[in-house]
From TrEMBL:
Catalytic activity: Exonucleolytic cleavage in the 3'- to 5'-direction to yield nucleoside 5'-phosphates
UniProt gene name: LOC115421209
UniProt entry keywords in alphabetical sequence: Exonuclease, Hydrolase, Magnesium, Metal-binding, Nuclease
Record organism: Sphaeramia orbicularis
Keyword Transport part of the UniProt annotation: no
Ranges annotated as spanning the membrane: none
Name of the featured protein: exodeoxyribonuclease III
Ranges in coiled-coil conformation: none
């Protein structure tokens, strides 16, 4: 079995319903190679999503805590993401906290909608769910939210629910945990 390149990623969306939510931010990190893009969603942000993330849309522009963000159309953001992934050795695994129940479902749906799913599948062989991995590695913790894990293992606080910060912190956690292949395989879902 050849070693996989693991790219840590996170999404911010308009709501938590994976069947309809729109992307607002997509971020990824692998080593010191970083990716971050914002896009203006077609659907309105739910009040809950706006409160948690700090995103808002006014007059067709995206704001983060009142600061206007530079955005690109969704298909462009996804194409740039695929270009970013192409810079790594395949096969690639994408790791996200709650990948199985959220991130993998959303990214698959939006890539299919934009006609980019087959290109994605050529690069990415699966998703690692670090929520499940943390529960497997540390079954007796009080909680498994990423914020809790970062505080517990890294002794840090950070700007959670910002995809860029979430991806960076997830990479730090994973490096600290240093899971073996069997544990990673157990928490991996194929595309």
């Amino acid at each position: 079995m050849s070693a996989n390149t693991i790219v840590f990623f996170d999404l911010e969306t308009t709501e938590l319903d994976t069947s309809v939510c729109d992307l607002v931010q997509i971020s990824a990190v692998c080593g010191d190679q970083f990716f971050n893009m914002y896009t203006v969603p077609c659907r309105p942000l739910s009040d809950g999503a706006s409160q948690v993330t700090g995103f808002s849309v006014q007059d067709g522009r995206l704001f983060l805590h009142g600061v206007m963000m530079s955005t690109v159309p969704l298909r462009d953001a996804l194409s740039y993401f695929l270009s970013y992934l192409q810079s790594f050795r395949c096969p690639i695994l994408l790791a996200a906290h709650n990948a199985h129940r959220f991130d993998a479902l959303v990214i698959r749906r939006v890539l299919q909608h934009c006609g980019l799913w087959m290109d994605f599948q050529r690069l990415v062989s699966g998703f690692v769910d670090t929520f499940l991995l943390s529960r497997r590695l540390y079954p007796c913790l009080e909680g498994y939210s990423q914020e809790y894990l970062v505080r517990n293992f890294l002794g840090k606080t950070y700007t959670a629910h910002n995809a860029a910060e979430d991806a960076r912190m997830l990479q730090e956690l994973y490096e600290l945990w240093s899971p073996n292949r069997e544990d990673v395989h157990y928490c991996t879902y194929r595309t």
